[in-house]
Write a structure and sequence with these properties.
seven-stranded antiparallel beta sheet, five-stranded antiparallel beta sheet, about 20% strand
């Protein structure tokens, strides 16, 4: 090229550079750009062969494109395609080469610098005659860098068609070309990365659309209720999305539910539980209101759906219908604590109610120093009833299902036999209570003014000791003549008598009193907050309720009853309380000449109903 006149050479080279650079920019892919680079070096810059070694992500260089003007018989430089050289070897080679501006020239006598792992091909060109002639082992390299100075690759050219080592103008043209090639390769890589990113984005969007559609179908067509609740903004807590199953469960249209929140639907007694569940992203069993005014037992399972950037976005709630299971559980609990024949609380429930009222601390000793015995100890005081303690009992938790008294499925009748939460209860043996009683009203004997005994004082309240006039009476009832009905008319008639007696006893007591069947023909009544005279009046009412004849299977049948009135107090065991009332009942039975026990602890007529 230097053999021509300089103006002509420069003009021709510029034209060639313009054409090959245009070819570089016209390439549509990285592979096309690399091929345009090697072809441009051969056809535009006057070399017989060219190769591009491209930097891989791991830093090593791989031969990515080669081109030869005329394919040699031995395969030429194309055999180098795909061969890899380490970055360390390339850096050492570039470092020992002669620096021609940005180019690197490696003369044949420095071939020792080429490491064995660098791909290399030596042609069969003529040996040099003059010092400026090109040797077949010479090498000219054009490193290509990105705008940030990172090595992109190396353009290697071989065998100038002039047979001479390149002059200043050819070197400058090669520098210009390698710079444009660097830009083109960088742009091609950027386009390739953008295309890959767009492909990934489209794939992710397709997956997202598929996932959203799967979620929509799972949400809409789920057999159980599903709801999405807003967590932020003015609509916090509002139901923003509900499925058909939830609408059917609550009997409310979708448009109405989307204007409400779970707080608007929950039973008032379950509101605190709902708030805790929403905050903890957990589960809870509670009641939601239906359109017909009733309440539906459901199990709520909450999951907080969070955004990676913005945190929690919304609350996904699964609403499961547990009405049948809840009804079954509550019925089982009721059966475990109630007599199967009469429906009254059984012995275990009676003792449980007593245990919730008794503490292990004995009653306060009176001013005269008299220490009362078990028969004198009362079971409560008027102050207890005023304290308003109520205990929710599982036995009546879904009373409406079995026709029991009360309609609240969460709380039983207000019988009043309970202690503040955490307070110890008496069991078979009295255990000492805590030093501080809090609001617990100590159970002491009501004053018996007619007997001339001491007036007993109750617990110290804000105004000092108070005179105890009322307590908890324990009335033990034993039927007279029941055995003869069983023997004469059979057990079916006896069972019918027991059911009728239970009905009459329940109708004779006050609201809140407990009527329990202890077993066989024995019944116990617990009446809280009454005095001694009121207890006697209650005993008369109970007796008068039982004595009238009852019609069983077309026959008139009659039973009597022996009643014993006892009192319970803190410091007593449950067995002592019942034994005291039992002894009083048998005192009355003996006084009237009725049937009494045969041996100690046995009864003359017993049959479990």
């Amino acid at each position: 090229m230097e053999a021509e006149s300089e103006p002509y050479v420069r003009l021709a080279t510029l034209r060639t550079l313009h054409r090959v650079v245009a070819d570089l920019n016209a390439a549509r892919s990285l592979a096309g750009t690399l091929q345009a680079v090697v072809e441009g070096a051969v056809h535009g810059l006057g070399f017989d062969a060219a190769a591009v070694s491209l930097v891989r992500p791991d830093g090593d260089l791989v031969v990515a494109a080669v081109w030869e003007l005329e394919e040699s018989a031995m395969g030429g430089p194309s055999v180098l395609l795909g061969q890899v050289g380490s970055r360390e070897s390339w850096d050492r080679l570039l470092g020992v080469s002669d620096h021609w501006g940005t180019l690197r020239f490696l003369p044949y006598d420095r071939g020792w610098a080429v490491a064995s792992d660098i791909p290399r091909w030596i042609g069969d060109g003529p040996m040099p005659v003059y010092a400026n002639d090109w040797h077949p082992a010479d090498g000219l390299l054009a490193p290509m860098y990105s705008a940030g100075g990172d090595l992109l690759g190396v353009l290697s050219v071989d065998r100038p068609r002039s047979g001479k080592r390149p002059g200043a103008w050819t070197r400058e043209a090669l520098e210009m070309f390698s710079l444009q090639a660097s830009i083109a390769i960088g742009n091609a890589r950027l386009r390739a990365e953008m295309q890959r990113a767009l492909a990934r984005l489209e794939k992710e969007q397709q997956a997202l659309r598929a996932s959203e559609e799967s979620f929509r179908q799972a949400f809409e067509y789920a057999p159980s209720g599903m709801a999405i609740t807003e967590l932020h903004g003015a609509g916090r807590g509002q139901l923003t999305r509900v499925n058909d199953a939830l609408c059917r469960l609550l009997g409310r249209p979708r448009a109405v539910l989307r204007q409400q929140s779970f707080a608007d639907l929950v039973h008032p007694d379950d509101r605190a539980l709902l708030e805790r569940t929403s905050a903890e992203s957990g589960r809870a069993e509670l009641r939601l209101s239906r359109r017909d005014g009733g309440y539906q037992w459901v199990c709520l399972r909450n999951s907080i759906v969070a955004d990676a950037a913005e945190g929690p976005s919304f609350l996904l709630t699964h609403v499961e219908d547990i009405e049948d299971r809840k009804r079954h559980e509550l019925q089982l609990a009721h059966r475990a604590s109630h007599d199967a024949l009469t429906g009254l609380p059984n012995s275990a429930e009676l003792k449980a109610r007593l245990g919730r009222r008794l503490c292990g601390q004995p009653q306060t000793v009176g001013a005269a120093g008299h220490q009362p015995g078990p028969a004198d100890i009362p079971y409560g005081s008027g102050g207890y009833q005023g304290a308003g303690y109520a205990v929710a009992d599982s036995y009546s938790a879904h009373a409406a299902y079995e026709g029991l008294e009360g309609t609240d499925v969460r709380s039983g009748p207000a019988h009043g036999y309970g202690l503040p939460e955490g307070y110890p209860s008496a069991a078979a043996g009295a255990n000492p209570g805590p030093a501080g009683y809090g609001e617990h009203v100590h159970a002491v004997v009501p004053a018996d003014h007619g007997s001339g005994g001491e007036v007993w004082s109750g617990p110290f309240r804000s105004g000092g000791p108070v005179v105890v006039e009322k307590g908890l009476a324990v009335l033990f009832c034993d039927l007279d003549g029941f055995k003869s009905i069983n023997d004469r008319f059979g057990h079916n008639a006896g069972d019918a008598v027991l059911v009728e007696v239970a009905r009459r006893l329940s109708g004779a007591v006050r609201d809140g009193d407990t009527v329990a069947r202890l077993g066989g023909d024995e019944f116990v009544v617990l009446a809280d907050g009454i005095g001694r005279d009121e207890a006697k009046d209650l005993a008369h009412r109970l007796r008068n309720a039982i004595i009238p004849p009852m019609r069983i299977d077309g026959r008139a049948m009659r039973v009597g009853v022996s009643l014993g009135v006892g009192w319970a107090g803190c410091g007593m065991s449950i067995e002592e309380v019942l034994h005291t009332a039992d002894e009083r009942m048998y005192d009355e039975k003996r006084a009237r000449g009725g049937s009494v026990r045969g041996a100690r602890g046995e009864r003359s007529h017993r049959r479990a109903g």
